[in-house]
Amino acid sequence: MAIQTIAVVGTGDVGRGIALLGARAGYCVVLEDLAGQIGAAMDFLRAGLDPSSLARIRPERLIEDAVREADLVIEAAPEDMETKLEIFTILDKSAPPRSILASTTSALSVTEIASITLRAGRTLGMHFFAPIAETPLLEIVEGLETEAGVLAEVEEVGRRMGKQTVRLKDAPGFLTARLGALMMNEAFQMLHEGTAGAAAIDQAARLGLGQAAGPLERADSMGLDNLLQELERLQKAHGEKFRPSPLLVQYVKAGRTGKRSGRGVFEYPK
């Protein structure tokens, strides 16, 4: 049966971005309020959608109500395994047996998330990239038991949303997060060694490598504490090449965590 209704669990930047793309693509979208942000999310969607697309979105305040008729449920909660496991336990109990369950995790194990459900074959990862509406890539992450037909159905959803999909196996860091972490860490190492200043490193990456944003700017946007945690996970899984730069560790200890704190590699107005 073709996917017609998508439930999005979480109304942060990722969740509301997915809801916008889903409504534009013609899906009925149920948007669940995970963190008390439903009003702000709906304001965002009103600004970005025409009336006919906006009419396809229904806000809900309970997960159980949001997923009751969903063909595809996309979890867009914070990047924390304990939180995601709690949510997927509820999703598995509340969503119809036919429903596909997807996580937007950028690095956590899809196989582990699927293992606490009774539908591991119908569980997978959908890793969107910020900004959601403008970035064309969607990583489709195959868990150990994900069925081939489920992958194909979700790839079609991605294409209707205007994304170019890449299918990959479940592995720490997936594909782009792993490559990006290496580049950001190497930029910190060059800064630490005095090879060049921060602005010069980012400018070289933009002009010489065709990057939309420099690696240090990207790290500040991601959160230096989040980058540090990601590198530590990758180091355990893939070895010493992912050992965090001492300068990155120092910045995080100093509370310089990036844009949200007002100061990381660069300074930001509060």
Explain this structure.
The chain is built from twelve helices and eight strands. By secondary structure, it is α/β, with parallel strands linked by helices. Strands 3-2-1-4-5-6-7-8 form an eight-stranded mixed beta sheet, sandwiched between helices. The longest helix is centred in the C-terminal third of the chain and has 18 residues, at 176-193. It folds into two domains: 5-169, NAD(P)-binding Rossmann-like Domain (Rossmann fold), CATH 3.40.50.720; 176-261, N-(1-d-carboxylethyl)-l-norvaline Dehydrogenase, domain 2, CATH 1.10.1040.10. The mean pLDDT is 94.
Quickly list its features:
47% helix; alpha/beta; Rossmann fold; 8 strands; N-(1-d-carboxylethyl)-l-norvaline Dehydrogenase, domain 2; 270 residues
Strand line-up in the sheet with most strands: 3-2-1-4-5-6-7-8
The CATH superfamily of the largest domain turns out to be NAD(P)-binding Rossmann-like Domain
Main sheet overview: 8 strands, mixed
Tell me the name of the CATH class of the largest domain: Alpha Beta
Secondary structure tally: strands: 8
What's the overall average pLDDT, rounded?
94
Give the radius of gyration. Answer: 19 Å
- As an assembly, this protein is single chain
The sequence of SSEs as H and E is EHEHHEHEHEHEEHEHHHHH
The CATH topology of the largest domain comes to Rossmann fold
Strand content: 5-15%
Query: Based on CA inertia axes, which overall geometry fits?
Result: globular
